[in-house]
Every structure is written in C-alpha cells, then in structure tokens.
C-alpha cells in the first residue's frame, strides 16, 4: 500500500479528518515536535503487528531527523500487509528525497482565515496581559498557531490605527525569528515583549 505525504501547516485538523469515523484499533498516531530515531523504532514495531483491515500509521512532526527517516526507508518501500503510512510535514524539504520518492505527495494549499487577536489592543491593561500569558501557560499553542497569532496581533494593530516605529517592528521580527527557531521557545517569551511595548505606547500617548 503506497504511503502518502501531506504537506500542510494544519496537522491537527488533517489528523482529525483522516481518522474521522475510523475505528481506533485501525490507526496509530505518532505526533511529536521532532521525529527521532527512537520514534522510528516505535513506528516500525507498531507496523509489524497483524492487522485484519487497512490501518493508518500517521507520523506528524515539525522536524524529521535524517537518521530516523533513513531507518524508515525499507518499511515505507515495502509496508506490511494492510498498513498505510501517512507522513505530515509543514514543507516537503523537511523530508529526505529518498522518502519523498517512495510516497505520494499531496500539498494542501487551502488558506485558513486569521482569527481576531485575543486582546483589544486599543484598551490594553496589565491585567489583560497577565491573563493572556496565564492562558498560554495552561493551553500552549503549536509553532504554526503562534505564527498565526503574531500575524493576528499585527492585523489588530493595523485595524486599530496604531502605527509602529522601526524599533517596534524589529520586535515583531525578533518574535517571528524566535518562533522559527528549532529550540522550543515558550509562547510568553515571544508575546510578552510585544504586548508590554504596546501597553507602554498607549500610556505614552495619553
């Protein structure tokens, strides 16, 4: 059964779609920040179990270790009976050419509307910022979700008529760079400097 690579920034939504109405016995999800060699060993062990009907082995990660991908090459080329591999990645360059050549590639180009930012940037208070950060700690977001939230904050400032200086724009550049970094940055490290600067800007304008 030929495996499929899905290129999409919305992995969770795709996983929900792929597993909708499917018996939980016949799909297995390996969802991690970075897919490493130990994850590959788990996938291989899982795929060699006996399945009486088509079973999906779904891999989803922001980063795929090269050694882990190489470990999967043989089983992806010759999957066990009734097993189909699904690999979900943010972009095709996250995967080795040898992996891509053995699977069918589907690129999802559907755009998703950006939701309004969680705070009213015209009436920002320290209490609002505290509550926002506390919520982030209790319900962390993925890198893609954080990226969308940064864009949402920029749009909110634009809609509110709040102009940013070059120095303030540089803070957004830094936030985007932190979010793209391979090291996992806490969401509040990204948003707190932005929100405090907007709060100070409002106080200075009064």
Q: Could you explain how this protein is built, in words?
A:
This protein is an alpha/beta fold. It has two domains: 4-107, 3-Layer(aba) Sandwich (Rossmann fold); 126-204, no CATH class. Helix content is 49%, strand content 17%. It contains eight helices and five strands, in the order E-H-E-H-E-H-E-H-E-H-H-H-H. It has a five-stranded parallel beta sheet with strand order 2-3-4-1-5, sandwiched between helices. Helix 5 packs antiparallel against helix 8 (187-205), helix 6 (143-159) packs antiparallel against helix 7 (166-180) and helix 7 packs antiparallel against helix 8.
Number of helices: 8
Oligomer description: single chain
Broad shape: elongated
Which strands sit side by side, in order, in the main sheet? 2-3-4-1-5
Query: CATH superfamily of the largest domain, called what?
Result: P-loop containing nucleotide triphosphate hydrolases
Tally of domains: 2
Could you say which structural class the secondary elements and strand pairing correspond to?
alpha/beta
User: Which architecture of the largest domain does the CATH hierarchy give at level 2?
Assistant: 3-Layer(aba) Sandwich
Q: What is the count of β-strands?
A: 5
End-to-end Cα distance: 65 Å
Q: What is the succession of H and E elements?
A: EHEHEHEHEHHHH
Model regions low in confidence, pLDDT < 50 over at least 5 residues: none
CATH T-level topology of the largest domain: Rossmann fold
By CATH reckoning, the class of the largest domain would read Alpha Beta
Mean pLDDT: 89
Our estimate of the beta-strand percent is 15-25%
Helix content: 40-55%
Radius of gyration: 21 Å
Pfam families: DNA_pol3_delta2
Protein name: DNA polymerase III subunit delta
Organism: Helicobacter jaachi
InterPro entries: P-loop_NTPase
């Amino acid at each position: 059964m030929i495996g499929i690579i899905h290129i999409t920034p919305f992995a969770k939504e795709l996983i929900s779609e792929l597993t909708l109405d499917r018996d939980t016995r016949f799909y297995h999800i390996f969802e991690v920040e970075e897919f490493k060699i130990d994850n590959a060993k788990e996938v291989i062990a899982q795929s060699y179990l006996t399945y009486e009907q088509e079973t999906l082995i779904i891999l989803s990660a922001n980063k795929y270790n090269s050694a882990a991908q190489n470990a999967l090459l043989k089983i992806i080329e010759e999957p066990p009976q009734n097993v189909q591999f699904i690999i979900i990645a943010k972009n095709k360059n996250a995967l080795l050419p040898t992996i891509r050549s053995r699977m069918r590639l589907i690129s999802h180009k559907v755009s998703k509307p950006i939701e309004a930012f969680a705070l009213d940037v015209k009436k920002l208070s320290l209490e609002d910022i505290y509550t926002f950060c506390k919520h982030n700690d209790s319900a962390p977001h993925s890198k893609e979700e954080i990226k969308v939230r940064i864009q949402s904050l920029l749009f909110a400032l634009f809609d509110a008529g709040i102009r940013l200086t070059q120095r303030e724009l540089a803070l957004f550049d830094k936030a985007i760079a932190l979010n793209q970094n391979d090291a996992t940055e806490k969401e509040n490290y990204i948003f707190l400097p932005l929100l405090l600067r907007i709060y100070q800007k409002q106080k200075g304008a009064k």
